[in-house]
Structures are given as structure tokens and as C-alpha cells.
Request: fold
Amino acid sequence: MNTASWLGLAHEYKLILRPGGILCLTQWDKLGMTNSVALGTYNELLTTALHRSVLSFSSHVHRVSVTPKLGRLLYDVGFQAIEQKRSVFDYSF
Reply:
């Protein structure tokens, strides 16, 4: 999604949730590390395309960096008690 659209989406989330409702978002920022040349190349191409299409908040071409912005975006539209949890997924098997 275009970076300019995130604030509007956060506002829509706020409108459709009941008071006291819980919003759970899952977002990735980096595709991970790999020892596969093919997957590494694919990851670089994907993040470069996202960056060029203004779908990334990062100034670094190989990161998307939506997650660091989510808390502030949610706060700006009136969400309270914002919690964030980081997770690592091992998909090497």
C-alpha cells in the first residue's frame, strides 16, 4: 500500500472498531536472511520495487519499515494502549 494511504487506513480501522475493541495487525519489514542466492535475489528485487513504488517508509532500499511507523499512525487517529510485539519466523526447514 502507498505510504500516503496508511493514515487513512488507520482512521478506517478506528471507525469500524467498537469502543474497547482490539486491532491486531501483522506486518513484515525485512524478508530475512537466506543462504539461497535465488531467494536473496528475489528479496532484493521485491524490496527495491516496493521502495521505487513509494510503498516503503524506509530510506534504505532493502527494508520496508512499516512496523516502526504503525504505533505513531495508530496514535495519531486516536488509538490508545498501543502494544507492539516483534516476532521472528524461521522458515528455513
